[in-house]
Design goal:
The chain is mainly α. 78% of the residues lie in helices and 0% in strands. Interacts with PPIF; the interaction is impaired by CsA.
Amino acid sequence: EYSCEYGSLKFYALCGVGGVLSCGLTHTAVVPLDLVKCRMQVDPQKYKSIFNGFSVTLKEDGVRGLAKGWAPTFIGYSMQGLCKFGFYEVFKILYGNMLGEENAYLWRTSLYLAASASAEFFADIALAPMEAAKVRIQTQPGYANTLRQAVPKMFGEEGIWAFYKGVAPLWMR
């Protein structure tokens, strides 16, 4: 049968764990590619292509340099996945109950879209602080090498706003 009852707390928790695993692990696995992409966007003269970007990074930072930003990536995208997968199910049931069974079926595509958009709204709020730290670590040489270095520095320089400047672009994306 089923591992848990649809709409139960265990159901939402399992959806959230699925989001943590699928988003956190996959985004962390491609950190080297993301690092080079971000550096190409910030300094196209230095990082002329993907292959050149990998070469320059390896020469300057070694193999460990390709992992810069892995911690905020893992934490941020795990939080985003938790919210995206978990809240999608919460909103799908909530909006479905508001519409009633027949209308929820008739308007299911719109219901799923509304549930998805609502979940993504909160998921991006959860992601934004770690994404901001990741970008600073990856694109500002000498700023910080780890999450533990970046967070207090960002907060000290700009306050809490440093972590949420990118939330509106995330919503637009």
